[in-house]
UniProtKB/TrEMBL annotation:
PANTHER family linked: GAG_P30 DOMAIN-CONTAINING PROTEIN
Renumbered residue ranges of the record's region Disordered: 109-131
GO biological process: virion assembly
Cross-referenced InterPro entries: Gag_P30 (IPR003036), Retrov_capsid_N (IPR008919), Retroviral_Gag-Pol_poly (IPR050462)
Origin superkingdom: Eukaryota
Name of the protein described by the UniProt record: Core shell protein Gag P30 domain-containing protein
Domain Core shell protein Gag P30, first and last residues per copy: 44-237
């Protein structure tokens, strides 16, 4: 098995996941309970992703399903980051991390702060070190808690997410209207990690239907930047305008012919 950390701390497992599971040991000299490596193929995680649903729609349900999927196993920092990388977009992972750290600082008393319990780089926690093992367990807990509380719970969040783009509404106006709705009804800052995820998701999901269909066909659109999605949406509007320009002269010519025919009929 090979592990690597690339870029901004996102961990990638090149072969598979090998979490540890506590099981009774056959040899008494090894102690009554020991840790056994249990292979978990990354394909299993991708298959599980199909059952996860969407973070914005059901964060509590997603947390419960992931908790059950992870089971009682002990995962390394790299393995947990790899699982998160498969299941969530970059913005969603940032939301979950900040939420998890906030929950830790709020509910857990201890010398370590949330950013220490959930480091950006692999801390190299050793399974033979009891404190390190506890850190792994704490990180797993923070992930589940972070998912549960990642989505803001504003009283009017549903109203903020009920906006739809008008058929002829300019993209800039549509985006600005979404930003204002998030701030006004949910209290979410569109420039935060949570705000960016909400803004981008709603921009696609509630766009005019031709734009929405186009954007949803963009591969891994959830991982694309908002500016890139705006460019793709603009292409749809450009094509629509071109079609209108082609159609309008045809309609005009048809109307002229009908008028001429009617006039000729009256003369007869």
């Amino acid at each position: 098995m090979r592990r690597s950390d690339e870029g901004d701390g996102e961990a990638k497992m090149e072969d598979g996941l090998y979490p540890l599971r506590k099981v009774p040991m056959a040899n008494p000299e090894q102690g009554p309970i020991g840790d056994v490596s249990v292979p978990l193929n990354t394909g299993d995680v991708r298959e599980f992703k199909k059952e996860m649903g969407r973070l914005l729609e059901d964060p509590i349900g997603e947390a419960e399903r992931l908790d059950q999927f992870l089971g009682p196993n002990i995962y390394t920092w790299v393995e947990l980051q790899s699982i998160l990388g498969i299941l969530f977009t970059m913005e969603e992972r940032e939301m979950i991390r900040h939420s998890g750290m906030r929950v830790w600082d709020r509910e857990c008393q201890g010398p370590d702060q949330g950013d220490q319990k959930w480091p950006m780089q692999d801390p190299g926690w050793n399974n033979q070190n009891e404190r390190h093992r506890q850190n792994r367990s704490d990180l797993r807990w923070m992930i589940i808690q972070g998912i549960q509380e990642a989505v803001p719970k504003g009283q009017n969040i549903r109203k903020a997410l009920s906006e739809h783009q008008g058929k002829d509404e300019p993209l800039a106006d549509w985006l600005e209207r979404l930003r204002k709705a998030l701030q006004l009804y949910s209290g979410v800052d569109p420039d935060t990690a949570a705000g960016q995820v909400l803004l981008k998701t709603q921009f696609v999901a509630k766009a005019w239907r031709h734009i929405r269909k186009k954007l949803e066909k963009v591969e891994n659109w959830q991982d694309r930047g908002l500016q890139e999605l705006l460019r793709e949406a603009q292409k749809v509007l450009v094509r629509r305008d071109e079609e209108r320009q082609k159609t309008n002269p045809q309609i005009l010519m048809s109307a002229v012919k009908e008028t001429q025919t009617a006039m000729n009929t009256e003369k007869c």
